[in-house]
């Protein structure tokens, strides 16, 4: 990604004296509603957010579903806004839990007719947008007892007359829109957040004293990764019957041994701009390697990662030696990937040859001596395809 690419956009929010009090963080594509993985990665990982926002409060919009994937940011003052149209009374318990955890919540275009006063207690901020209602409607709405005690922000102010009217009517309010300041794009080079997280996780896992809490802190650096790891605990694979709300609990259910495998899968599945077929091909190879390894060397570990990481250059657009240099992997895995040596290297060579239909490169006689016939090898391959399909749905 070029240095001049837009990561996200920053809109200034001012008080009645036109002093900057906060920044509204926007998806760079104004046509996109809500957030996506690349936006959240840019927001929390790819830039120094404190520097970009000049230590001001930041506002951004998301959904209640995505809120569960966002780790609490203790180093910045952040308010998360949810649309009134997407909320129901059934969401009260979830919202209350987020509030107890320390999240600051705001509601967009609130309608006091839809909710009781207690529902509004979980919200500290209210956002009114002038594309949905007039300035008069806003001024009237904030007189309601459930809304009058909240922090009020009015967005999409398009002309100076609207701004002056709101300044006089809502002296403690906050304001933004084209009449005040234009949106400023925040540019830079997006780093692959998962690669850095993967390195840190591998280092931590090599330290046997690392706790699930310590490992969770690495995962929680990326909201989308956190969400997908939590989501994994509710699959058939793990059959969790508990409401998992944080990365630490998810790790305890998944198990530290499987953690790197799943973090790596999430990393591969989140690289933008790649053909849709690439991810299932990589996972199929990983599963085939794992199945063949289990048949040949039941106690051997690392085959899944060898198969998966053999696709690293295709995803990250760097040569394999450069990529592996940064990853603190077991030497057996590195040797297998770079030199096709050792038991893991032999397994990778067989799998790659089988995928390509290069039968002359497959040591069938050696496999037969290990009780693996051509039919058995075919079954291991097909089983890998089935497993990869299941993993792709996580």
TrEMBL record:
Q: Which domain of life is it from?
A: Bacteria
Q: Which Gene3D superfamilies match?
A: Hypothetical protein af1432 (1.10.3210.10)
Matches recorded under InterPro entries: HDOD, RNase_Y/CdgJ
Please report the stretch or stretches of sequence annotated as the HDOD domain. Answer: 191-375
Matches recorded under Pfam families:
HDOD
Protein name, per record? EAL and modified HD-GYP domain-containing signal transduction protein
């Amino acid at each position: 990604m070029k240095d001049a690419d837009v990561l996200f956009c920053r809109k200034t929010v001012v008080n009645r004296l036109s002093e900057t009090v906060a920044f509204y963080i926007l998806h760079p594509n104004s046509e996109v509603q809500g957030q996506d993985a690349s936006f959240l990665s840019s927001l929390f990982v790819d830039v120094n957010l404190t520097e970009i926002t000049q230590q001001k409060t930041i506002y951004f919009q998301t959904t209640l579903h995505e809120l569960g994937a966002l780790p609490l940011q203790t180093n910045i003052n952040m308010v998360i806004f949810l649309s009134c149209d997407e909320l129901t009374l059934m969401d009260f318990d979830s919202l209350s839990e987020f509030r107890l955890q320390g999240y600051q919540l705001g509601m967009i275009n609130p309608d006091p007719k839809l909710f009781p006063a207690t529902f509004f207690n979980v919200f500290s901020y209210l956002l009114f947008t002038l594309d949905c209602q007039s300035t008069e409607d806003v001024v009237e709405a904030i007189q309601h007892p459930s809304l009058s005690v909240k922090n009020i922000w009015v967005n999409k102010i398009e002309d100076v007359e609207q701004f002056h009217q709101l300044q006089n009517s809502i002296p403690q309010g906050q304001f933004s829109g084209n009449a005040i300041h234009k949106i400023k794009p925040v540019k830079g080079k997006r780093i692959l957040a998962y690669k850095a997280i993967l390195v840190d996780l591998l280092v931590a896992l090599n330290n046997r004293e690392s706790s699930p809490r310590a490992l969770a802190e690495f995962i929680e650096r990326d909201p989308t990764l956190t969400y997908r790891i939590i989501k994994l605990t509710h699959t058939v694979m793990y059959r969790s019957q508990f409401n998992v709300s944080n990365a630490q609990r998810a790790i305890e259910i998944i198990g530290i041994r499987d953690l790197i495998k799943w973090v790596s899968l999430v990393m591969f599945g989140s690289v933008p701009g790649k053909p849709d077929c690439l991810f299932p091909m990589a996972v199929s190879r990983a599963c085939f390697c794992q199945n063949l390894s289990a048949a040949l060397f039941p106690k051997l570990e690392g085959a899944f990662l060898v198969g998966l990481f053999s696709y690293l250059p295709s995803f990250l657009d760097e040569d394999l030696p450069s990529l592996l240099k940064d990853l603190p992997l077991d030497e057996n895995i590195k040797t297998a990937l770079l030199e096709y040596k050792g038991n893991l290297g032999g397994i990778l060579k067989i799998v790659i040859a089988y995928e390509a239909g290069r039968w002359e490169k497959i040591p069938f006689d050696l496999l037969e001596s290990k009780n693996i016939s051509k039919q058995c090898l075919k079954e291991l391959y097909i089983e890998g395809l089935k497993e990869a399909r299941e993993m792709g749905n996580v």
